[in-house]
Write a structure and sequence with these properties.
By secondary structure, this protein is an alpha+beta fold. About 50% of the residues lie in helices and about 20% in strands. It has helices at about 5-10, 15-55, 60-70, 75-90; strands spanning about 95-100, 100-110, 120-130. It has a three-stranded antiparallel β-sheet with strand order 1-2-3, with helices on one face. Strand 1 (about 95-100) and strand 2 (about 100-110) form a beta hairpin. It is rod-shaped and about 95 Å long.
Length: about 140
Amino acid sequence: MTAGAASRAEDGSVSILVVGLATALLMVAGLLYDGGHILAGRREAFAVADNAARAGAQALDVGALRGSGTTRLDPAAASRAVHDYLARVGHTGTVNVDGDRVQVVVAITVETHLLSAVGLHTRTVTGTGEARAVRGITGPGG
């Protein structure tokens, strides 16, 4: 085989390497860029869930408080307060009211930009928040 024939046999091999490296670089950039958006969405889900739980924890059962001095939530009013808050901020979630505690789970769907090139178009992240209704000042740690 002559030198000219050997060089013709390798024509295009650098192009394949460049395409492979460019694809790998695009995926790493996608992980960094879209990964940052996913982490921000997760942080938002936790913040929204915490705030919604606090809104629900303000819905006290007034009858129980006045009658026996028991700090207990009105489950229907607490659930309504949570869903009202979530609607105001443009999210949805689930709520669980148990005695004096409200737990809220919020799911947020984050759209990817660079990773959509490899088939990952969205990612759903969740955040959980919990609040407890208390009476008076209870000191550090509630």
